[in-house]
Amino acid sequence: MNWDDINLSLLGFFGAAGLGLTLLIQLLKQLPELIAAIRKTVDAVRRREPAEPRDPAAPQPEEPAGPEADEPAEPGSHE
What is the pLDDT of residues 19-44, one digit of tens each? Predict the structure, then answer.
């Protein structure tokens, strides 16, 4: 192992360590915003009124498949 290998290894190690430290610091800076957003979401879910329970045996209303389901096909169209 020569000095070039040692030098490049140290440079790579400290570069990766610096990147990891920078990412950790940025995460810690954004943590209060993340916690506030999670709390806001949880509060919104808790305040939401529960939907009416559906009876699984009751027939479900059928909805059209799309906008073309309401309109008759034009003569000569291949759809």
Answer: 999 999 999 999 999 999 999 999 99
